Amino acid sequence: MAPSRAFLQRARASQPRKLLAMANVFPSTTAASNAVLASMRSQPTQSRHFSNTQRQAAAAPTHSTEGKRKPLTEEQREFLSSALRVNQAGELAATLIYTAQRGPVVGRDPHLRPLMRHMYEQEAGHLRTFNSLIAQHRVRPTALYPVWSVLATGLGWSTAMMGRAAAMACTEAVETEIGEHYNGQIRKLLEMVSEWEAQGYEVGEEFRTLIDTLRRIRDEELEHLDHAVENDAKKADPHWLLTGVIRAGCRGAIWVSERV
Q1: Of 55, 180, 183, 192, which sees the most CB atoms within 10 A?
Q2: DSSP 203
Q3: How close are the terminal C-alpha atoms of the chain, in Å?
């Protein structure tokens, strides 16, 4: 049965009272709501509605990663922290080895003074780099600084006292392990970059700079290895035993410094 005219008139008359009652419940939003409604009324009717295409586009989830950087996982953060920690410790040890070797080696072979100074200055530069990165990223240094300091100084002095060949064999052994160590870190970082790029994430400039820094330092360490071989490292007696012991010690120090 159709509603009577009188019923419709009463219903229309009651609407303002209902709206007023709602406005009293939310008094802080009344002015804003009125402004929004007035704005909507002033626009053409079709602009107040989404087309089917617009509605689908608004409802569709967006998965674009363009311009975004993927957060590091806990495992990746631990890797980067341990890498900076062990690298700083290794460069500290290298500066102490060269410092202990320089006096005895240069005393016997004065022509090696420029080479020893050059290698020391590069190692000191490496140490400054990692000191800065450790501070910048708030990474805890190794707790075994005092131990590595004593052992590195002792290794440098003892091999220097054995002669030039033994001192150079020490450099050969240390730089062989350090070169492989840096290569491993660089490979890991490049794998992370490849994974991020494959997923469409942006790789930050700071991360790429870190990779370039590790490559430069690795190349300078391998340059020291070449200098050592050119200056009779292979003539140390017994070469295999001396370099084997030193390389094993380096691997142990790296393993411990990554964790402690």
Answers
A1: 192
A2: -
A3: 87
